[in-house]
Structure formats: structure tokens, C-alpha cells
Amino acid sequence: MTNSVLAYATYLPFWRVDPASRGKAGRIVASFDEDAITMSVAAARSTGCPDSAESLVLVTSSPSYLDKTNATTVHAALGLDRRVPASDAIGTARSTLAAVRAAVAGRGSLIVAADVRTGRPGSADERTGCDAAAAVLIGTPTPQRPAIADVLATVSLTEEFLDRWRLPTEVSASSWEERFGYEQYAPLIREAATAALDDAGVAQADHVVLTSPNSAVAKRASTLVKGVHSTGGSPVGFAGAADPLLGLAAVLDLAGPDETILLISAADGVDALVLRTTGALGSRRQPDPVAAAAAADGRVVAYPTYLSWRGLLDMEPPRRPEPDRPAGPPSARAASWKFGLNGSRCTACGFVHLPPMRVCRACGAVDQSEPVSVRDSGGRIATFTVDRLAYSPSPPVVDVVVDFDGGGRATFEVADAVPDTLGVGGEVTMVFRRLFTAGGVHNYFWKARQVPAVARASGEEN
Amino acid sequence: MGSKGIADKVAIVAMGCTRFGELWDQSQEDMIITAVDEALGQARLARDDIDAFWLGTLASAQSGLVLSRALGTDYKPVTRVENYCATGSESFRNACYAVACGAYDRVMAVGVEKLKDSGFSGLLRGDPPGDGTAPELSVTAPAAFSLLDPAYCAKYGVDAGQMREAMTHVAWKNHVNGARNPKAQFRSEVSKQKIDSAPKVAGRLGVFDCSGVSDGAACALIVRAEDAYEYTDRPIFVKALALAAGPARGSVDPGYDFTTFPEVVRSAQDAYAQAGITDPQQEISLAEVHDCFTPTELVLMEDLGFCDRGQAWKESLSGAFDADGRLPVNVDGGLKSFGHPVGASGLRMLYEAWLQLRGEAGPRQLDEPRIALTHNLGGRPGACVSFVALVGSELSGGR
Predict the structure, then answer these.
(1) Looking at the complex, does the CB of residue A65 fall below 8 Å from at least one CB of chain B?
(2) B273-317 pLDDT tens trace
(3) Is there a contact between B129 and A327 if contact means CB atoms under 8 Å apart?
(4) Which domain holds residue B14?
């Protein structure tokens, strides 16, 4: 008995950049306050059922930390039970399909793969890459949470050759001539595809997805293996560890019931999966399909600003001191608030406190409260401001006082702010972001995000 | 009301105040010496005639040593106090109580702040290690107070342009007043057009909507009221001292609408009760209030009972709080013209009350003022401390 795919979702950031000044800002880029951790939280929340995870694996080649587990931050932001294991798989798209294989054969898992792909200024990676996250929930189907796709076969071939590499201390990758890698990958892809389809007892897959960091492989995907209904690759530009799951998601967004999918990832060898969709897929697709998210205009960030987000351009900061790093013990004491956005509701009078407080501000009751999470609550802007003096990795800071539906008020920064459309009474939702990094510590917390963010791109942000 | 009042129990018999500004050539110790010597000179006293000191500073020093070391005092008690932007007033309040209870005969409240040594704009926060979620970490003071503007407009249906005019009037008025004060940081008038078109700092607050950043020190010599005339023939008498530290409810309560400071309302009620004031608009001759940002002063006019709710913008525009208006506010130029060296500001406000009530305010002198109010606000809308003092030129006898 193997586990099945129970849910999936993807996350594409809001921002677009035009690195080559071609007049079309098509490169999807994470904001300055996003990274693999925050994008993973966004994708996992989009599945609608992160709390069904038997375990959590974060796959990324752009980890926010080494020597500290990144997945534990995601675990905390999702409010998962401490008995749900959380671990990292740091590496390439290989690690993503390895995690999927492990979850299919063993303990079920919520696998979130996310990457910020930063190429050198002027590079192909900068132009054609994509910052994104994708999540897939694998586990035992139940009547409440049926399988949307069953895994019929898995194959993994491993080869050592120098196609693409990056030192751990660098943000940009290097690659050998693409044709060299292509010659290595092509026979491996054919071998893996044949073996996987044979194993699954399928003559030809209805849908084929082939992704690879090697651009020649990606370009010739359709000549290597063909699907009956569709043959595709990276749906929005190579997205690193997230790429195979983004490709799978793009098929699941459209596939009919009882169709087969051959998912191939060519990275230092080839991993192949054959899946068959179920009748439950149609009613359990992700809310925001990959194609729609990729086609959305988003908001254009000026190229120099984008470079400063990645630390590639040192911009003049406001004449304000940098903030102190978050301290370990206070962060641990406040973990439920800082990561889970849990406040307290007074059991005597119902007043909601954000952050939690021991003495009720409304009735004075002491230590009579229950935890209440507002991370999935909508909220309204009570008042707002644009702060041009505050320190920020990307000024100005936009602040809002949020009153939550169901009670509670707190002040937050605004993520992906569109200052022109701010207004008292405006709707916001909460998103998990990285406020700043100080003293080598990332300060993760929640921000408010305007709803709807923006109808269409309107000029550049500086 | 919890406080029993302090009316007519203590008096100020001398004061000192440095020039406020970017005093690159003076340390906090230098400024303390300047202010204290001015006061001691007036009272013809030596440093060791002072029994005890209260030193207010937000971040320019720790402990009382900065004063005892600077002045070389003779092992006298020095208490360092801090209460956000009410720090200077807080040193005064506690010093008054020490005299009132009979523990000392002559004490001095000293406030000092050295802001211009940091190299940064605005106030710096010295927060204890935290979890990185406090809004104060990213929301600067001008941003926090800029929240008043849209909220006030929304509540009272004030057009954004009218509100802008009212905020501009506050800045314009306080600069006009400051231009007549030799101790102010900024001593020139600023046109309304220049105020309107200044670069934005936060929300709709431009540079001229914000108080300046300066260095300064001020002090007050306090004795029992019955001894006051031994030191001067024109002492001023403390009528009320009120402090309210809020439970920070506004920052967590959707019921709070960012158009008032409940802490100010409560501290004003307390002060008026202590002094027997029933009609502040008629009985108060002048007010020195915490105009850290222009919308703050507008809201304070309502919270202190100087005008009805929703009327401050209109009253300000009509000139009610101008130097020649019905209730002059910040006739010395306010934080707008003086900047806001936190520890010194409250005592600087008292210094203007001292000059006005003694008829020594020169070109700013008002016509026979009798009661002056000083007010400080520390923190931000939703969570703050508020201080209100009333001082008068005469003993009222009964009260």
C-alpha cells in the first residue's frame, strides 16, 4: 500500500522585474521580505489543509539558514502539532522528488519546495528563472480527504557530471555548455521514462512534464518524451527545487479524472514518477491555478530596487539605526504569537488580545484566556500611514492598524503594499514574511496584505 | 480621583534653561551646569545648598552620577527618572513631592537630553532584547502620530485639505512664536506655503509637521510654598501635578479610534480637580503642550478641554490658540521651535510658564497671565503616558 497525493498548491510572488529593459517585466521575483521559508508557508496554507500533514519537509537550494532547520519556522507558522516532524532537504530539484518518493513509500508528508533563484545581473538565470514555491500533501486517503492522484511508479537514475553548480556561499549558479548536459541527460531521460511507464503498465502518459535546470533539456522536452494530451516543462521559468512540483501542479490544474501523468526531473540524473488522477481531483484543485498566477500582471519593481533586494546593489539607507536582532529567549516565549499569530481570548468577557496578554484589558480577569489564531482571519484597516523615516530593506514602510473579523486589533507592516489604494476600512489578509535580518538572524513575523492587491500593474515602484 | 492634590504646597523659586539646538560644542554635563547655574544665580544659592536632585533623561545618561559628577555635588541624593517624553516633567513631579512631604527643604529638578551625538534622525530607541514583533520597531514616532490625521478626518468628516490647513496653521503659529524666543532652536518664521510643500516624513506629515531634534537642559528649584518669598518676590506655585500611564488598550482595542488620547483626558481631569479648575477655557491663561507633531496639538486641544470635540481644526484655523488668541498655546514656540530633547522638554515648558507668570517673557509677554498649564505626552496613540501640571502666580489661600 502506497500513499497518494491528497492536495497541492503553489505560490508565485506578486512582483515582476524587467532585467534586460526589454519593455516587458516578465520575471517573477520574490519581494525583499520573502524567502524559501515564507513562500513555503504561503504555498502550504494554499493547500487548505496543512494540518493534515503527517510530517513536513522543506526542500530548497536557497535556505535561509544552515545549522538551523528552516522547516521548523514553517512548522510554527502553520501551527502544526509538535509531534509532526519537520526537516529540511537542502539541495536541488532532485531533493524534491526524493522527498516525494519517500513520502509515497513511507510516512506521509507535506512537501514544500521553494526557491529564490538569483542569477548574476545580466545572466540567463536572472532573465528566465522564477522565484516560487509549491506544496504537495502525500498521505493515506480518507473519505474526508480522498486521493486526487495515485502514484503508480517511481524511477531514479543517478549520474555524476558537471552541468550546473554553485558554491554554498554564492547566490548565483554556474553551468557548463548546455549541449554537454543535454547529451548526458537525453539517454537517461528516455531510459527513466520507459522504465517508469513499463512499471506503471502505461503505454503512453496522457500528460508529460519534464523539467531541468539545463536549458537545452527544457527546450527540447517535447522531442524527448511525448504525452497524449499535453507535454510541458517549467510552467513559469526554472524555479529550482520548486520546479517539478510547479510543473505537476500546472497539470493537476487542468487534467481530467483517470488520466496519467509522467513527471520527469532531470538534475544530476533523472527522477521519474507516474501518477494517475482520480475523480476527486476536479473538486480539489488549488484555488489559484499556476497559469492564472503567472499571467497576472503583479506589480513591477524597478531593476535597481530589485538588485538591492538581493544584496547586489547597496542603496543609501534612511538615516536611522538598523534594528536589533530578535533575541532567542523572548522569541521562544512569544513563539505562538510571533510565528503562529495566536492571541488570547478572555474567557470571562471575550475580548481578544494581540499579542496574548495575561490581564484582560477589558475586564481585568487574570490568566483566564484561551488561545485564538487570527492568521486565517480577515481584517479591516482602522488607520494607516506610509513611514518614510523607518528603517527597512526597501523603504518606505507602510503600516496599518488592523481590526480582525471576530475580534482583536494589532499594528502590522503591509506586504506588497500599494500605498495609493490604502484606505480606512480596506480589507487585508495576513501573510508570513521576513521583516528584516539583523545580526545574522532573520526576523520572521506576519504582515498585512491588501485585498485585492491591485487590479493591474500601474507604473514602477521605487 | 485618586490623587489628593498638591495645590499651593510647593513653589518654584528659580529656573534655568539652556538655549536649545544642535549644541555640537556642549556635552550633557555642560548643559546641566549651564541650566543649574542660571537657577542658582537667581536664588543666590550654592550647589551644596540644594538638598537633593531629580534628574530626568531618556537616554543621555544612566543613574544620577551624570549630575553629581558634572556638578561635583557633596554626596547629595540624585534620582534619575525616565518616563518617555514626559521624563522632564516626571523629574519635576517627583521633586515636588519630596519637598511637599517635608523630606527636604530645597530640591532641584533637572532635565537634560543630548540627541545630536547619535548621527541619526529622530529619537533612538533603547529597547530591551525582544521577539522582533513590536510595532515600535518599524513604526517611527512620526508614523505613529500620523495615524491621527486620516482617523480624525474620517470621524469628523473633515476634508483632507482642511485638515492639512489646520496642521499647517499649528506649525506656522509655533514657528511665529519661536521666532520671538532667543532660546529656541528655530528662530525664524516659516511660510504656510513652505510648510505645505515640505518633503513628507510619514503619512501626510512633512518635515515641518514634526518637532525638531535638538540638545538642551532645563531645571527648576523647588521649595515649600511658605518659604518661597525667602528666595524671590515672584515665585510661582504648583497647583496640580497629574500623571496617567495608560493600560495600552488603544493598541489592542478596535473601539479606539485614534482621535483622542484617553491618557491626556484622564490626566487633565485629575489636574483640574486638584487645582479646582472648572472651566479650563476661561481659567487657564496659557498652555504649553506636547506638539511633537502638528495633528497631536490639534487632538490635545480637545483632550485638554480647550475646545469641543471635532472643533480643534476649526478653532486652530480661527486663531483661538495663537499668541493673541483666546487661549495662547505654545507661546514660546513649542517643541516645533525648540526641538524635543526629551529629558529637558517638560522643564522647558515650565520655564516659559515661569517667565510669563513673572512678566519676564519679553516680546512674547501675555497680558497678566495667572494660571499656566504644561503638558507632556510619551509613547504613541493607543499606548502612552500623559503629564499635566498647573502652576499659578498666586497662592489661592483656601485650596
Answers:
(1) no
(2) 999 999 999 999 999 999 999 999 999 999 999 999 999 999 999
(3) yes
(4) 10-116+215-236
